[in-house]
């Protein structure tokens, strides 16, 4: 991987990067679908009772997948990457993807993206939306309850003008619930 200057988040990193950055900009990747198919036993669930969080699945026909891109200072990169590796250790691996920033005249940037591939032990995969929603409703972990993750992600994507139909459909199960925290 080339020197990391950008980090792209499409899940919790959209609303809670928790690292210093030079600037941030909404952006998107092509060829990937965001899905609540990754199990979480260290953030939104616990061992034996995993929650569900998002990962990216290769999908040539997918609509652009929007998230938040963060430019980081070179001198901060080693510390930030070490912290992110720890935060995303529940099945995610580093990838380098091309991100189109939503800034007029801005070129695409090569960004570090954490993707949980189907090979990781926590991967749960596809399930009916009702099943996913029921699992999320019942799940809670060290980072908070799982439904808040869904609602916070839906809200953040709305705020950037890029609602995701899969996230919207899940958030609809939790309408009226609070989306405080990260
Ligand atoms: C990300 O936010 O980009 C990775 C997945 C997550 O931590 O929710």
Descriptive keywords:
5 helices, binds succinic acid, two-stranded antiparallel ribbon, 182 residues
Question: Can you walk me through this structure?
Answer:
The chain is of the alpha+beta class. The protein is 25% helix and 32% strand. The chain is built from five helices and nine strands, in the order βαββββαββαββαα. The strands form three sheets. It has a five-stranded antiparallel beta sheet. It has a two-stranded antiparallel sheet with strand order 3-4. A hairpin with a 6-residue loop joins β6 and β7. The longest helix is centred in the last third of the chain and has 14 residues, at 146-159. The radius of gyration is 15 Å and the shape is globular. The model is unreliable at 178-182 (pLDDT under 50).
Strand content: 25-35%
Which regions are unreliable across 5 or more consecutive residues at pLDDT < 50? 178-182
Shape: globular
Strand tally: 9
Helix content: 10-25%
Q: Profile the largest sheet.
A: 5 strands, antiparallel
Structural class: alpha+beta
Q: Any idea what the radius of gyration is?
A: 15 Å
Q: Largest beta sheet: what is the strand line-up?
A: 1-5-2-6-7
- Tally of separate helices: 5
SSE succession? EHEEEEHEEHEEHH
CA distance, first residue to last residue: 29 Å
Bound molecules: succinic acid
Average pLDDT works out at: 94
Oligomer: single chain
